[in-house]
Amino acid sequence: MAGDDIDGTGPTQANPAGDAPTDLASGVTRRADAPDSLLGGVLAGRYRIDRRLGSGGMGAVYAGTHLLLDRPIAVKIIKPRFGDDPGIAQRFIQEARAASGIGHPHVVEITDFGETEGGTAYFVMERLEGEDLADTVTREGPLAWPRVVHISEQIARALAAAHKHGVVHRDIKPANCFRLTRDDDPDYIKVLDFGLAKVVGSASRAEQDASLTQTGALLGTPGYIAPELYRGLSADHRVDIYALGALMHKLLTGELPPMRLGSDGPSELSLAAVPPGLQAILRRALADEPAARYPTAQALAVDLRHLAAGTGVSLDPGSEPPAASGPLLAVTHDARGISFTIGAPLLGALVLGLGLFAFFSLRAGSLPPADPAGVPVEPARITAEPGPPVIAAAAAPPTSPSEPPTVEPPTPASPDVLGPNTHEPASPGETTAPATTSGADEPEPRAALPKGSPAAVQKAIRRRCAGTFGYTVKLQWKADADGHLIPGSVKVLGTPQHNDAESCALRQLVRSELAWTPGETYAHAFKSG
Ligand SMILES: Nc1ncnc2c1ncn2[C@@H]1O[C@H](COP(=O)(O)OP(=O)(O)OP(=O)(O)O)[C@@H](O)[C@H]1O
Questions:
Q1: Cα–Cα distance measured from residue 63 to residue 225, given in angstroms and rounded to the nearest whole number
Q2: Ligand 1 pocket, mutate which of 107, 132, 224 (most atoms under 8 A from CB)
Q3: Which of 28, 181, 182, 462 has the smallest C-beta neighbourhood within 10 Å, fewest atoms?
Q4: Is 171 designated active site?
Q5: Is 390 left (phi over 0), alpha (psi -120 to 50) or beta?
C-alpha cells in the first residue's frame, strides 16, 4: 500500500502488511519524522497507524488503532517542514493540551499527546465517523436555516466551554467542525483542531493581546478572520464569535459574508429569506466592532436555542431589529400523524414574502427558486473553501524606493463603489506600484465587478477618512486569480501600530468590491485630503 504524500515529496512505500510493527517513538528517527512512513507502524508503543485521513495547514491526520484497548483512534502529526520550528511544534502540543482540558460533548476528545524521539509532535483523539461541514456544504449546497441553527448552537456551546477554559479556537470554519450521527441526530457536531488556539487564561492581558495580534502574524482562515485582527487591534474570544457568524453565513448561503469593515456602510447581508430573528443574530455575531457582538458564545448559543424553540431572541435593545416572538412553527405529533401550527411571526414573514414575491413576479416575471426554509437555492454559488490557515500575513515586501513606480491609469467607466468620483487620476506623488507582474494568460477579472482603480479607492478614502488624515498613508494589498482582493493581504506599510487614519483607509480598501488585476500586489500611497 503506498502512503499518501503529505509534504509534496511524492508517495512513499509503507510497511507491507504483515511486517513487524516499528516502534516510532523509541527509535528510528527517520521513520518518526517522515509521516508517510508511519503507515503500518506503531506510535508510542500502542497506536498503530492504519491510513491517512487528510492533512491541513500544520499536520496530517491518520486513522489508527489503540492496540491495548483495540479501539479506533485518530492521530494528528505535525508536518515535517514545521518540525524544525520549535515554536510551531510547541504550538502544536499546546493545541492538544488546551483541547484536552475542555471536556465538552461538542469538542473532539483528545486522549494523549507527545513528541517522538525525533521531535515530531503528535496528539491522539477519538476517531469520528462522518464528514466535516466543508464537505457537507460542498456536497449539499446551502443548508435549511433550522439545520444551521441546530448546528451553530452546538458549536457555540463548544466555544463557550473552551472560552471558560481560557482557550480561544481562532480558526473556526466549516472544515474544523465535524458532523456525525449520534443519538439519531445526523447533525451532531464536534469541533476539531484547536491548532491555532492559545491558552489565554494563563497569560497576562498584554500577553493575550500580543498573542492574538502578533505583528506580521495574522492567524485564522481568510473570510473567517475578525475585523479587529485585520486591523492589528486588540483581540479576544470574540474573534471566535465572528468566525461562527461567518460559518453560519457560509452554511446558509454557500458564500462567505461580504467584507464589510466599518459600521457606516449599508448592511450587505444577503439573507433576505432567512427569518428576521436569525438575521439579527447573524448581524450581531458579525458586528464589525467586538463590543457590538455577543459578549459570550454562551449568549449566542442561548439566542440560537430560543430561535429554534420559537421563543424569541434577546438582542441589544435599539441596535437590532426586533426579535421574533412566539413560536415560528410548532410541529405536533399524535396518533393521526403530524400537524403544523404557524406562529404569528412566521405568518407575518410568509405574508410579507408572498407580497414581495407577487410584486417582483409582476415586475421581473421570475424569481429564483427557494427551498422550503426560504433560502434561495439558485443564486447561492458554492465557492471553494479558502486556503489553509494564514500563519503569517501576506508577505510581499514593501516596494523598494529604487523601483520605478508605475501609476495605474484611471479607468474611465469604473462605477464608484466607494465614493462619488472614480475618475480622478492619482496626484503626483501618489503612487501605485504593482509589486508583481501578472502573466499574460491570467484570467480576466469577473465581468460583474467593476475594474479596480487605486484612484477610485483613493477618492473614496479621501471622502470617508478626510477628518482623520494628516499625512500620507501607504497601503499594500493583493488580488487573487479572480481579481478579488485577498482578505488579509491588506497591510499598512511602515508603521506597526495603526492610527485612526490608517484604520479608516484600511477599512475602506477592504470594503471595496472593485476587481483588481489578477495576481497583482499593489502598493499605494494615499495622500492627505
Ligand atoms: N478525530 C477525527 N476523526 C476523523 N477524522 C478526522 C478527525 N480529525 C480530523 N479528521 C479529518 O482529517 C482531515 C484532516 O484534518 P485536519 O485537521 O488536518 O484538516 P484541516 O482542518 O484542514 O487542518 P488545519 O486546520 O491544520 O489546516 C479532515 O478531513 C478532517 O475532517
A1: 30
A2: 132
A3: 181
A4: yes
A5: beta
CA of 79 to the centre of ligand 1 (A): 13
Name the residue among 102, 101, 46, 53 with its Cα closest to residue 74. Answer: 53
Give the position of cell 499574460: 440
Mean pLDDT value of segment 466-491:
69
Please identify, by atom number, the ligand 1 atom nearest to the C-alpha of residue 127: 3
CA atoms of 349 and 338, how far apart (whole Å): 23
CA of 18 to the centre of ligand 1 (A): 28
pLDDT band of residue 410 (cuts 50, 70, 90) is: very low
Q: Confirm if 294 and 303 have CB atoms less than 8 A apart.
A: yes
- Determine the average pLDDT of the residues in 401-415: 29
Going from the C-alpha of 8 to that of each of 12, 55, 62, 448, 503, the distances in angstroms are 11, 12, 17, 36, 39
Q: Which of 127, 152, 120, 154 minimizes the C-alpha distance to 31?
A: 120
- What are the residues whose beta carbons fall under 8 Å from the beta carbon of 90, sequence distance 6 or more? none
Tens of pLDDT, residues 33-51: 444 678 999 999 999 999 9
CA-wise closest residue to 60 among 145, 120, 135:
120
For the annotated binding site for ATP, the residues are 76
Q: Render pLDDT for 77-94 as a digit per residue (tens, 0 to 9).
A: 877 655 566 666 676 777
What percent of the chain lies above the pLDDT cut of 70? 48
pTM of the predicted protein model: 0.56
- Please, which pLDDT band fits residue 238 given cuts at 50, 70 and 90? very high
Gap between the Cα atoms of 231 and 225, Å rounded: 11
Q: Ligand 1 center to residue 55 CA distance, Å?
A: 6
pLDDT reading at 138 higher than 70: yes
Q: Spell out the alpha helix ranges (H) of 180-232.
A: 205-212, 227-230
With a cut of 70, say whether residue 441 has pLDDT above it: no
111 three-class SS: strand
Check if 59 has its Cβ closer than 6 Å to any atom of ligand 1. yes
Cell numbers given for 89 = 511544534
- What is the ipTM, given to two decimal places? 0.96
Q: Pick 315 or 487 by higher pLDDT.
A: 487
**Residue 299: pLDDT band with limits 50, 70, 90:** very high
Compute the mean pLDDT over every residue in the chain, rounded to the nearest whole number.
65
Largest alpha-carbon pair distance within the chain?
A: 82
Closest CA to 60 of 128, 138, 1, 5: 5
399 CB neighbour count, 10 Å cutoff: 22
Asked whether 483 lines ligand 1 (CB < 6 A), one says no
